[in-house]
Design brief:
alpha+beta; 17 strands; 290 residues; six-stranded mixed β-sheet; Nitrilase/N-carbamoyl-D-aminoacid amidohydrolase; 27% helix; 29% strand
Length: 290
């Protein structure tokens, strides 16, 4: 069974409505090119506001489901596509999440994934804004296959990918906002990007699933600082091959056919799930075993 996935790589601005209009146009383009499941980048309606701690930014959050997901549901039903829409969720006064809505191809709101791993790094002050996710690693059965969503920092954790794969996911989607600190790019940029792609390709191999990483691109923040989002959205097959990769510095929409029968072939030839020692992994539930 071949399913075509759409990866929408965007450069975003400080106008939420313009960002939304652009995303809707790119969804339409992807659907017209045959995409059946379309994923947008992390927090796609806004600039990446976590570069600083600013209480005013909480006003950007929205209730989910809400007006944005209602509009996306209309689009999904009209175009017959599954949509993955990462949004800033206002759950209750003082409780906010970095979330993603999953909408089926008939427009049904299937549910939310809330980012589980919340980073705190220079220009990535996410702990100020987001409570850790509490819905677990969810898998949705959509019209076009079983999908899981993991968001950005989640992509570094093999436990998250494994949990989603054990839940039956055929494609792991990683909507992302990751980039270079311009002052570090010359020295560390190539290694940082290589590490990011390598860890996600390893999730595909270790779990026998397809992986799709959907990043933003462009410079955000005051120059010469800020962040240069490195784009390079990509999709990988269960054997780790990169099926398609976007550029570092341009908006692009990738439409990638994925033969889901490769999952069976991969898992029978490389039976990692069969040979897991589930009787011997107790220490994984500890912070550190020493």
């Amino acid at each position: 069974m071949i399913v075509s996935i759409g990866l929408v790589q965007l450069a975003l601005c400080d106008d939420s409505d313009l960002n939304f209009a652009k995303a809707l146009d790119r969804i339409r383009q992807a659907a017209e090119r045959g995409a059946q499941i379309v994923c947008l980048p992390e927090l796609f309606r806004n600039l990446y506001f976590c570069q600083s701690e600013n209480h005013d930014r909480f006003a950007l959050a929205e209730t989910l489901p809400g007006p944005t997901t209602d509009r996306l549901s209309e689009v999904a039903a009209r175009m017959g596509v599954v949509l993955i829409a990462p949004l800033f969720e206002r759950r209750a006064p003082g409780i906010f999440h970095n979330s993603a809505a999953v909408i089926d191809a008939d427009g049904r709101f299937l549910g939310l994934y809330r980012k589980m791993h919340i980073p705190e790094d220079p220009l990535y002050h996410e702990k100020f804004y987001f409570a850790p996710g509490d819905l677990g690693f969810r898998v949705w059965e959509t019209r076009f296959g079983k999908v899981a969503v993991l968001i950005c920092w989640d992509q570094w954790y093999p436990e998250a990918a494994r949990a989603a794969a054990l839940g039956g996911a055929q494609v792991l989607f990683y909507p992302t906002a990751i980039g270079w600190h311009p002052s570090e790019k010359t020295q560390f940029g190539e290694t940082q990007h290589s590490s990011w792609e390598t860890i996600q390709r390893s999730h595909a191999i270790a779990n026998g699933v397809f992986v799709a990483a959907v990043n933003r691109t462009g410079h955000e923040g005051a120059r010469p600082g800020g962040l240069e989002f490195w784009g390079a959205s990509f999709a990988a097959a269960p054997d780790g091959r990169v099926l398609a990769r976007a550029s570092h510095d341009r908006e692009e929409t990738l439409v990638v056919p994925c033969d889901l029968d490769q999952i069976e072939a991969s898992r029978t030839h490389w039976p990692f799930l069969r040979d897991r020692r589930i009787d011997a992994y107790q220490d994984l539930l500890k912070r550190f075993s020493s």
